[in-house]
Amino acid sequence: MAELTERQKYDLKRKIEELKQCKGKHTELISLYVPPSKQISDVSNYLKNEQSQSQNIKSKTTRKNVLSAIESILSRLKYFKQPPENGVVFFVGHKSIGSDQTEMVAHVIEPPLPITTYLYRCDSLFYVEPLEIMLKEREIYGLLLIDRRECTIGLLRGNRTELLKYMTSQVPGKHGRGGQSQRRFERLTEIAAHEWFVKCGEKASEIFLGEENLKGILVGGPGPTKQYFVDENYLHYEIQDKIIDLFDTGYTDEFGLKELVTTASGTMDELKIAKEKKVMKRFLKEVTKSEGSLAIYGEEQIRKALEMGVIDTLLLSEQLRRYRLKLKCSTCDYTKEITINEDELETFNPPNCSKCDKSTLMEIVEKVDLIDELSDKADKTGGKVIIISIDSEEGDSLFSAFNGIAGIARYPVEL
Ligand code: ZN
Question: Which residues of the chain fall below pLDDT 70?
């Protein structure tokens, strides 16, 4: 399957979040997935049939709501001669907006990947699972840390490190009490170590074999034990084949997982998290320069730099959750733009017009996700856009220390 761009992923993720917030009072939210191969006329006929079936719905309000949702989809279908390249999804229905009130919502989505199955569903929630599957992370690496005392098994899913299993051994230390029993002690120790490695090998193989799309395995740990473990084939042969490399880490516990990922991303540029870390390090290095710094941060500064077209790389935190609103005065047509947080949106009251009559309230005429708005601006001036998760330490600092918006300029500028 094709990889989605970061922007496509972000937009789809936000769309799913929005759809998930819609709740119907009854089973009256319709989700309709139309694959690219489906005839539009077949879909219309199917809906007309659903329409006559829905006449039997007992509750009057539910019946009315379902029928109007179907009607709405039917009228939207008229705009299509055939489904778009990847098909189309309709989410239509009356969502509950509290105190017995409902509001009609209609989303028509052309997904970034092809829809494979035709599906009609009427429920109290929108059915978003097929879209969520498109978002599923396909860059997955197995992580294994091992020495004679501890074993930790985990996964690197995109940027996220997951701990799946932590085990400790009963293998005694290498040094016995000396004397006659020394040889016997050593032999017992080796038997115990062998059993430990078998146990770890089996557990790791079981976990990794259960993971579809595993791109490779990174093995870590201090000292030579990990090499011995790999050389002696303690892992299932299919898993053995997926080992990419061995890395020295100081820890073999949960902390070691992060250490392993950081160490590996130093040499493996193909790791997604490596790209994030690298670009953030470049930015942070610029921040500390006292002269000729290329670092720019803060929304206002970034806007100025984008307008001048000097942004080489725009860094946006996936966690931003902000909107850019365009406000307009209906009397004098004066417009202005402001940025607000998602959680302020619901209680937001537009201000009075500052241009003409101060008693005229301005109206929201446009609402765009801030990430989309800034990305478009960067695209237009040839800047790269990198949407950064908060899963790495660097990504976290972009969000918390730089308010989630930063950039690297093409050359030093005075803003
Ligand atoms: Zn005005």
Answer: 1-2, 174-180, 358
C-alpha 361 – ligand 1 centre gap (Å) = 8
Query: What is the tens place of the pLDDT at every residue in 13-30?
Result: 999 999 999 999 889 999
User: Over the stretch 337-349, which tens digit does the pLDDT of each residue have?
Assistant: 999 999 998 889 8
What is the distance in A from the centroid of ligand 1 to the CA of 117?
51
* pTM, two decimal places: 0.75
Q: How many CB atoms lie within 10 A of CB 98?
A: 6
CA of 335 to the centre of ligand 1 (A): 8
3-state secondary structure string, 43-100?
A: HHHHHHHHHHHHCCCCCHHHHHHHHHHHHHHHHHHCCCCCCCCCCEEEEEEEEECCCC
Which CATH superfamily hosts domain 285-409?
Answer: Ribosomal protein L30/S12 (3.30.1330.30)
Q: What is the Å distance from ligand 1's center to 330 Cα?
A: 7
> What is the 300 CA–ligand 1 centroid distance (Å)?
24
Ranges of CATH 3.30.420.60 domains, the chain: 140-268
Ligand 1 centre distance from Cα of residue 334 (Å): 5
Distance 123 CA to ligand 1 centre (A): 45
Give residue 362 CA to ligand 1 midpoint distance, Å.
Answer: 8
CA of 364 to the centre of ligand 1 (A): 13
Distance 355 CA to ligand 1 centre (A): 5
Position of tokens 């516990």? 253
- Quote the strand ranges of 173-283, DSSP E: 214-221, 243-248
- Please state which architecture CATH assigns to domain 6-134: 2-Layer Sandwich (3.30)
How remote is the CA of residue 351 from the centroid of ligand 1, in Å? Answer: 11
> CA-CA distances (angstroms) from residue 253 to 36, 65, 153, 163, 215?
48, 55, 9, 9, 23
Q: What is the dihedral of CA 20, 22, 27, 33, to 10 degrees?
A: -60
Q: Ligand 1 centre from 373 Cα, in Å?
A: 25
How many angstroms separate the CA atoms of 224 and 244, rounded? 17
